[in-house]
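mind reviewing both lines:
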Amino acid sequence: QVQLVESGGGLVQPGGSLRLSCAASGSIFSIYAMGWYRQAPGKQRELVAGTSSDGSINYPDSVKGRFTLSNDNAKNTLYLQMNSLKPEDTADYYCRMATPERDYWGQGTQVTVSS
């Protein structure tokens, strides 16, 4: 089992920055891929940053150059640095970690970009 706890969401003005954190615990040795997703009201959940099994990081064009995925192995924490935020980035953000048995999801953290 893997437990994920997210933090770092909030209200930010357009052009601002936020850093989301996802702390993992439990059977973290079996994780082979990780990432962040978001879901806006009335829309499907979408990937915003994620690792592949070969270690590469993928970003959709909508966030490329603005969002950065990183992790701190010592703290078992995955981060999403979000810069130059836009109103269309408003959504609930979820971290996901994949093991051979199943995917694990955090509870979500809300990000609102508004003036």
